[in-house]
Amino acid sequence: MSKAKFDKAVAIVQSLPKEGPIKPTQDEQLFFYKYYKQATVGDVNTSRPGMLDFVGKAKWDAWKGVEGTSTEDAYAKYVEKLIEILKRADTEESKKYIAEIEAA
Questions:
Q1: pLDDT tens digits for 74-84?
Q2: What is the pLDDT of residues 36-57, one digit of tens each?
Q3: Interatomic CA distance for residues 78 and 92, integer angstroms
Q4: Among positive and negative, which fits the CA dihedral 37, 85, 24, 97?
Q5: Are residues 84 and 11 in contact, defined by beta-carbon separation less than 8 angstroms?
Q6: Residue 17 to residue 61: CA distance in whole angstroms
Q7: What's the number of CA atoms in the CB half-sphere (13 Å) around residue 56?
Q8: Cβ-based neighbours of 93, under 8 Å, separated by 6 or more
Q9: Residue ranges of domains in the chain
Q10: What letters, b where the CB count within 10 A reaches 16 and e where it falls short, cover 87-96?
Q11: Which of 30, 82, 85, 104, by CA, is between 20 and 30 Å from 17?
């Protein structure tokens, strides 16, 4: 998977409106987060957040769970998940996004 496809997928995910027709679930958002961090930072390099930071802990645990994943594999998983969500949405907008990713 190319960095260009990954970068295009990241731009699409970040541009999705919160209440739009293409809406990743919380689990899917966490999936994007962990593979984005793994692709751009690598293995977890921070300590686990404190007991009351539930969101921070969930994000950290998700990222820790993909430790050892290569940058290339993280790119691929991120892009494949977005394409899966876009195909499920089956809108004109989602088809346009798929074409943009494939052209990158």
A1: 999 999 999 99
A2: 999 999 999 999 999 999 999 9
A3: 21
A4: positive
A5: no
A6: 26
A7: 8
A8: 21, 22
A9: 3-103
A10: eebeeeebee
A11: 104
